[in-house]
């Protein structure tokens, strides 16, 4: 279907050389090289979440990804992206530099950075590393912002290639005080010049082509989807978590620190928390149960595969995601939905 479907022309599709302005999010624990490849081969652009990768695992993933494009010249950019989390980069500088060097050596087309207290430090490393000088392709830099201030810094000071405006509806981690995706997108576009600004992507709560088209009409150059791609066979997200997403309604998700505390993780920047399915973990934290007890209960639930006390990250758009289908079909479905909605909107004129 996507091969014959009318293309969608935006600054993002021109920048990346793709036909569908759809990006799969760089989710930790819910992406794979196979998922990123399938999204890109279907006409969108796929990211692999590399935040918790080792140099060995990342090298294997990148080698496998390039082998999936047999007609790609060795020096050509590898048409997938890698995503990194700022505070994790800071936690292990030596390993983080190895990961970036691997990305540069493999000519990855794009790098995505988010959730850091000093992202410019890592942007400087990427742009000055010896591997960058040797690379036949200089990666495009995507930065995910959770506030207007951060987004404007990314554009005006950090000179990034693409800005992702992540709204409050987004699953996984994001800004605790972030506005809705539409409000954030509108604020950012109003603050940027009409000419010369980098593409702005909308992220948060998007699950279908109708929503994607609405954001494109509002001025976004593309959309980012996470939860929808977590529910694909190519995603390594565990079956219990996928089932929880399929059951969830929008009101079943909550933005909270409780889910991280159940994992014994306290290192996220102060302005960041996470959205996921509300379970007894959240109930216990809100009732004042101490964190150690919650962590022990979570460990037992994980061992028993009990969804009632597990952590399942997903966005408010989960209510629109009920079935699992291959990533290629998801992209094709999104493409068709975008084109149909844009054509329907055009019919309102005149």
Percentage beta strand: 15-25%
List unreliable stretches of 5+ residues. Answer: none
What's the Cα radius of gyration?
19 Å
Task: Give a short account of the largest sheet.
Answer: 8 strands, parallel, barrel
Question: Order of strands side by side in the largest beta sheet?
Answer: 1-2-3-4-5-6-8-9
Number of strand elements? 11
Mean pLDDT metric: 96
Write a short abstract of this structure.
This protein has 350 residues and is α/β, with parallel strands linked by helices. Helix content is 43%, strand content 16%.
Overview of the molecule:
α8 links the parallel β5 and β6 (162-166). The chain has an 8-stranded parallel barrel with strand order 1-2-3-4-5-6-8-9, surrounded by 7 helices. A 3-stranded antiparallel beta sheet has the order 7-11-10. α3 runs parallel beside α5 (93-105). The chain contains 16 helices and 11 strands. With 350 residues, it is an alpha/beta fold. The protein starts with 10 loop residues before the first helix and ends with a helix. The model has no long low-confidence stretch (mean pLDDT 96). It has helices spanning 11-16, 33-41, 55-67, 86-91, 93-105, 119-128, 130-134, 148-156, 181-191, 209-218, 227-230, 239-247, 258-262, 280-286, 291-304, 327-346; strands spanning 22-24, 45-49, 78-85, 108-114, 140-145, 162-166, 172-175, 200-203, 222-225, 253-256, 272-277.
């Amino acid at each position: 279907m996507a091969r014959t479907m009318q293309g969608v022309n935006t600054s993002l599709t021109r920048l990346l050389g793709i036909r569908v302005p759809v990006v799969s999010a760089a989710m930790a624990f819910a992406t794979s090289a196979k998922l990123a490849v399938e999204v890109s081969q279907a006409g969108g652009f796929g990211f692999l979440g590399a935040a918790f990768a080792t140099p060995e695992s990342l090298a294997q993933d990148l080698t496998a990804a390039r082998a999936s494009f047999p007609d790609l010249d060795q020096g050509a950019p590898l048409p997938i992206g890698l995503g990194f989390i700022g505070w994790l980069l800071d936690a292990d500088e030596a390993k983080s530099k190895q990961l970036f060097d691997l990305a540069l050596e493999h000519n990855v087309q794009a790098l995505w950075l988010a959730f850091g207290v000093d992202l410019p430090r890592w942007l400087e490393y990427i742009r000055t590393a010896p591997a960058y000088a040797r690379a036949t392709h200089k990666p495009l830099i995507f930065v995910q912002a959770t506030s207007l201030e951060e987004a404007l810094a990314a554009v005006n000071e950090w000179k990034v290639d693409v800005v992702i405006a992540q709204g409050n509806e987004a699953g996984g981690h994001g800004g605790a005080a972030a506005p809705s995706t539409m409000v954030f997108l509108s604020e950012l576009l109003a603050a940027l010049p009409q000419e010369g600004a980098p593409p702005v992507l909308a992220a948060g709560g998007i699950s279908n082509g109708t929503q994607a088209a609405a954001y494109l009409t509002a001025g976004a150059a593309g959309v980012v989807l996470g939860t929808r791609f977590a529910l694909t066979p190519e995603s390594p997200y565990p079956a219990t978590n996928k089932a929880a997403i399929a059951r969830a309604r929008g009101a079943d998700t909550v933005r909270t620190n409780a889910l991280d505390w159940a994992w014994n993780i306290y290192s996220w920047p102060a302005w960041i928390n996470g959205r996921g399915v509300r379970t007894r973990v959240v109930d216990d934290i809100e009732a004042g149960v101490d964190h150690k007890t919650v962590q022990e209960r979570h460990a037992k639930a994980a061992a028993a595969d009990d969804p009632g006390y597990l952590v399942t990250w997903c966005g408010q758009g989960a209510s629109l995601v009920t079935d699992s289908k291959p990533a290629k079909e998801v992209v094709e479905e999104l493409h068709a939905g975008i084109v149909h909605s844009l054509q329907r909107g055009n019919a309102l004129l005149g």
